[in-house]
């Protein structure tokens, strides 16, 4: 059997819902990991995706985060949040309201896992990190440690398993991962500690499934809305698929669906699609 799995930072599911539904109908993925929902668990558009044959598990608060998994293969063993996940309290400099200034760190909805037929997946939205030295940067590194610890057992399992999502890290300096590494000197997404966290994640038995570029020379997944970055292909590869050996061995195709980034009202990310050829 062929199983098509995708990951997409949708950048507000309610704002992009027509785009998402159109893409689901045309691309026909079996399992979809979504990030940056910007909606609460209760306000997720369950009915709309159900009309296309998808069950959904969501995890969100209605603020800037939120993750979900859609599946035509069933959803079981759902886990919302990472065991031992750190929280983030925010600070006065970035607060837009008093809710961000908390005595106790807030555990954000950035991870959800489910078993979908023959595969198990995590959908993750790794913290951005803001700036090197910022409290959010330290939070990002701690969050990645919690992710690594959370996936150890699944990575070692004999069933196909993958952690898919927006990692907010550019894996290498190569042009295949970033249009101009010189633009990121001293910034987050490319620092040694962030890349070391990716290496630690791979060390538990996961491999980076790099998508083909299709019509383009570079498999970028994100382009800023500003400065004509998409038409000029000033992008980066930060939406990643980290998978265990049974998953990797079953990969028959993988690509970035860049067409979904085109036009008005789109997310600033494109979907990453992976096809698996599995025994029935």
Structural account:
This protein has helices spanning 13-27, 46-50, 135-156, 192-203, 245-250, and strands spanning 2-9, 31-35, 55-59, 67-71, 76-80, 111-116, 119-125, 161-166, 207-208, 222-223, 235-236, 239-243, 251-256, 272-277. By secondary structure, it is of the alpha+beta class. The chain has one domain (2-277): Deoxyribonuclease I, Chain A, CATH 3.60.10.10. The protein has a six-stranded mixed sheet with strand order 3-4-2-1-14-13. It has a six-stranded mixed sheet with strand order 5-6-7-8-12-9. It is globular and about 45 Å long.
Task: Name the descriptors.
six-stranded mixed sheet, 280 residues, globular, Deoxyribonuclease I, Chain A, 21% helix, 5 helices, alpha+beta, 14 strands
